[in-house]
């Protein structure tokens, strides 16, 4: 029997290759339409760079698709098209801000980093054939993650930009090692919790309807808490701190299904944040801005004031339900609207309708990731896929919540949209890991030889 | 360019953006409900409930569902291939359970009936309440317990 016969005789999960390619083409077409819209909005003509950017993005994604089809054929069909769309819309917004002659916005730079991101995505898929290899590197990943987190604190190497010491200068580049640390730490959490979850889930006493864990099992939670508070205090980086701690709490909840861990985590974080707010001026300033953005004194404060936040809110307000239209608003009035505040800038031009569509796209990416976690056949993959999807969702929540003044603003990037190489690379790597795991989860079980006798069939 | 044209472009763009989201949900929908590769023509049209030709014989299980234990919620679509369960990394369903053996049990189909077979595990495999000592036919919804994990076959 040939392989084709086998494939036909055995009903399997469909690969959905055609749907994937169609959705990918659709996403690229939307991005090109957005480019055209920007040009028409600004100066009544389709911009000359449209074909270059559009075909560049299209070519990149076709390459990513071919690698995916070759090395992870059973992978989820939606992940790549959805990521393409958000990445492309981000590119368009940066291009639009560059057209408005905003300082620092550079679409060609972002396209270059997107290309590097696709290369990293492909490299991860090609080199990492079985994600369970990561499980053997649990503690290595933990040390690498911690090292990367601490790296910006090393004198001469670390740099402080815009008040946060999260940068490392290498040659002419500045990179944010924290972006990569989060991936390494999620791998570590997954491996660690697979080994330790039974004791975390079962030992303990029951008190007031809540299962309390034993005091000595609190160790890892307290260590992670200390590390996040350390990041908050020493590097003045609220975003990464919140991201890491949230990811750990979510993963421990996925592993143990115990609500008490979530309660303990929230209490610890609120307590830590409250104390930090009392003790450190930069944290206190964030809280002040969050509670009283309309305060005149805060608005006019040159550093750490509410000017940026309010400009973002004004922008989204003037966008309204349907937006001002691409190229017709004034997102260049919002400081840093190409990186931290790209969501507000997009909100001004695409309106609530557009923002909701983008949030839906993010939600779908996360849904595919969680779906992978549900379908995964071994506990490590479950935790890793769950954790990676969660940090993606959590990141979007923290920055969108910050920009819309729901929670105190923290300097996190909007995944795939904000300008910045480190974040783009690490998020493409995250998607590559999810694709790798969804490939393993959706692949039909290995074909055993029917009259096997003593023959064992291995999957490797 | 006139105001009206720009307004139309704006609305059209938002509509297309939402159409993308809806199309993505459509792909997931067929992914969830029409994942049988035996009927690719009907899979494309989710509004037609014409799944009749793709169906195997009535009463035959199509899915293995984990209903208890750490892997709860995992679903494996059944094919003609046997399913191995155990702690070994190459098992179809990999358990991380101190009460399970590396190669704990095996589920296999024979003439349309699924059987469970214990592969010499230390703590045994249980079908309903009774220990499995030889290949035993598994009926729909009957719980199979392996260590802390409970699985069952469903349509």
UniProtKB/TrEMBL annotation, chain A:
Q: Does Iron-sulfur show up as a keyword for this record?
A: no
Q: What's one GO MF term for it?
A: lipid-linked peptidoglycan transporter activity
The primary location reported for this protein is: membrane
* Location relative to the cell: Membrane
Tell me which domain of life the UniProt entry assigns to the organism this sequence originates from.
Answer: Bacteria
Question: Where do transmembrane segments lie in this chain?
Answer: 21-42, 48-71, 78-98, 110-128, 140-158, 178-195, 238-255, 262-281, 341-362, 383-404, 416-435
Q: How does it sit in the membrane?
A: Multi-pass membrane protein
Taken from the UniProt entry, a GO cellular component term is: cell division site
Q: Which UniProt keywords apply?
A: Cell cycle, Cell division, Cell shape, Membrane, Transmembrane, Transmembrane helix
Q: An example of a Gene Ontology BP annotation on this entry?
A: cell division
- Protein name, as recorded: Cell division protein FtsW
Species whose genome carries this gene: Sphaerisporangium rufum
| Native organism taxonomy | Bacteria, Bacillati, Actinomycetota, Actinomycetes, Streptosporangiales
TrEMBL record, chain B:
Q: Where are the transmembrane segments?
A: 6-28
Q: Indicate the segments forming the FHA domain, all copies.
A: 83-132
Which domain of life does this protein belong to?
Bacteria
Instruction: Please give the SMART domains that the UniProt record associates with this protein.
Output: FHA
Segments carrying the region annotation (Disordered) are: 39-66
Q: Any idea which UniProt keywords this protein has?
A: Membrane, Phosphoprotein, Transmembrane, Transmembrane helix
What PANTHER family does the entry give?
NUCLEAR INHIBITOR OF PROTEIN PHOSPHATASE-1 (PTHR23308)
Q: Know the name of this protein?
A: FHA domain-containing protein
Question: Which organism does this record belong to?
Answer: Sphaerisporangium rufum
């Amino acid at each position: 029997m040939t392989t084709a016969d086998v494939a036909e005789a055995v009903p399997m999960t469909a690969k959905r290759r055609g749907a994937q390619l169609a959705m990918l083409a659709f996403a690229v077409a939307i991005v090109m339409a957005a480019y055209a819209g920007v040009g028409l909005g600004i100066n009544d003509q389709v911009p000359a760079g449209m074909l270059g950017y559009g075909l560049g993005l299209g070519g990149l994604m076709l390459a990513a698709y071919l690698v995916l089809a070759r090395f992870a054929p059973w992978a989820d069909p939606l992940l790549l098209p959805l990521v393409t769309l958000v990445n492309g819309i981000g590119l368009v917004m940066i291009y639009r801000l560059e057209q408005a002659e905003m300082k620092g916005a550079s679409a060609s730079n972002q396209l270059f980093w997107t290309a590097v991101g696709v290369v990293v995505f492909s490299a991860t898929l090609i080199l990492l054939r079985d994600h369970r290899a990561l499980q053997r590197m649990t503690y290595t990943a933990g040390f690498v993650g911690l090292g990367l987190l601490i790296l910006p604190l090393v004198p001469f190497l670390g740099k402080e930009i815009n008040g946060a010491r999260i940068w490392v200068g290498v040659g002419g580049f500045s990179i944010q090692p924290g972006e990569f640390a989060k991936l390494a730490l999620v791998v570590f959490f997954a491996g660690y919790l697979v080994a330790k979850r039974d004791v975390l889930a079962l030992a303990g006493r029951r008190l007031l309807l809540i299962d309390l864990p034993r005091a000595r099992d609190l160790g890892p939670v307290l260590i992670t808490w200390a590390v996040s508070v350390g990041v908050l205090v020493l590097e003045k980086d609220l975003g990464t701190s919140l991201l890491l701690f949230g990811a750990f709490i979510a993963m421990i909840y996925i592993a143990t299904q115990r609500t008490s861990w979530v309660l303990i985590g929230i209490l610890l974080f609120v307590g830590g944040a409250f104390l930090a707010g009392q003790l450190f001026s930069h944290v206190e300033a964030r809280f002040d801005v969050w509670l009283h953005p309309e305060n005149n004194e805060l608005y006019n404060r040159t550093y750490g004031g509410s000017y940026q936040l309010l400009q973002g809110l004004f922008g989204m307000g003037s966008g309204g339900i349907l937006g001002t239209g691409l190229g017709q608003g004034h997102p260049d009035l919002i400081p840093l609207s190409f990186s931290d505040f790209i969501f507000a800038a997009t909100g001004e031009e695409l309106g609530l309708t557009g923002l909701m569509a983008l949030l839906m796209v993010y939600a779908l990416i996360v849904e595919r990731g969680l779906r992978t976690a549900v379908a995964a056949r071994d506990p490590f993959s479950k935790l890793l896929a769950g954790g990676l999807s969660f940090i993606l969702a959590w990141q979007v929540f923290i920055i969108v919540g910050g920009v819309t003044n729901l929670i105190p603003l923290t300097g996190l990037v909007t995944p795939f949209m904000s300008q910045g190489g480190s974040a783009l690379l690490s998020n493409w790597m995250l998607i590559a890991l999810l694709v790798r795991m969804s490939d393993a989860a959706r692949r039909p079980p290995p074909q055993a030889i029917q009259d096997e006798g003593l023959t064992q069939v291995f999957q490797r | 360019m006139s105001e009206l044209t720009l307004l139309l472009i704006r609305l059209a763009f938002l509509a297309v953006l939402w159409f993308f989201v809806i199309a993505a949900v459509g792909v997931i929908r067929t992914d969830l409900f029409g994942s049988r590769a035996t009927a690719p023509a009907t899979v494309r049209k989710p509004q037609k409930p014409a799944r009749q030709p793709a169906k195997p014989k009535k009463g035959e299980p199509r899915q293995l569902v984990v209903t208890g234990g750490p892997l709860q919620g995992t679903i494996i679509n059944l094919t003609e291939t046997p399913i191995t369960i155990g702690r070994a990394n190459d098992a179809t369903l990999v358990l991380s359970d101190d009460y399970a053996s590396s190669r704990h049990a095996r589920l296999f189909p024979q003439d349309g009936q699924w059987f469970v077979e214990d592969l010499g595990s230390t703590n045994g495999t249980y079908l309903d309440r009774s220990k499995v000592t030889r290949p035993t036919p598994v009926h729909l919804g009957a719980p199979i317990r392996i260590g802390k994990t409970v699985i069952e076959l469903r349509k």
